[in-house]
Amino acid sequence: MARLIAFISLLSFQALTVNGQHRAFDSLRQALQTSSADTARVDILNRLSHAYYDYDSREGFRYAGEALSLASTLDYLRGQRHALTLMGFYYNTIGNYREALRYYDRSSAVNLPEDDLLGYNFVMKANVYRAM
How far is CA 62 from the centre of its chain? Predict the structure, then answer.
């Protein structure tokens, strides 16, 4: 009986977690549709990308690619750096370490002052070297 209760509790917790995550995705997608500022759209696309990597890395990569494309068009350097780091993360997760390093290098080369994204990029790059 105790095992059954524990099992049901675990299933309920997982359902709440998944349902809560879907609401977060929906909220970000709605913000994307209603946002009129282009740089805000880039930031939302990057947030969507980051959120999706836990569930569907290809979808996360797709959102990062959209963010990079829009950020490049706008010459929004912070958005470019973030998208490139997220794209590197995708390649890291699928085990293509050379491509991951290439994206992390591109992210580091974005002409911005040092910021938290650059630090995050360096940590991610170090993780690739550790894995290799």
Answer: 10
Q: Which among 128, 48, 46 is positioned nearest to 88, based on CA atoms?
A: 128
Q: What is the pLDDT of residues 76-115, one digit of tens each?
A: 999 999 999 999 999 999 999 999 999 999 999 999 887 8
CA distance 60 to 87: 8
Cα–Cα nearest to 89, from 42, 41, 128, 48: 128
Amino acid at 126: A
Residues 6+ apart with CB under 8 A from 70: 38, 41, 42, 45, 76, 79
Residue written as token pair 């359902």: 15
d(CA 132, CA 130): 5
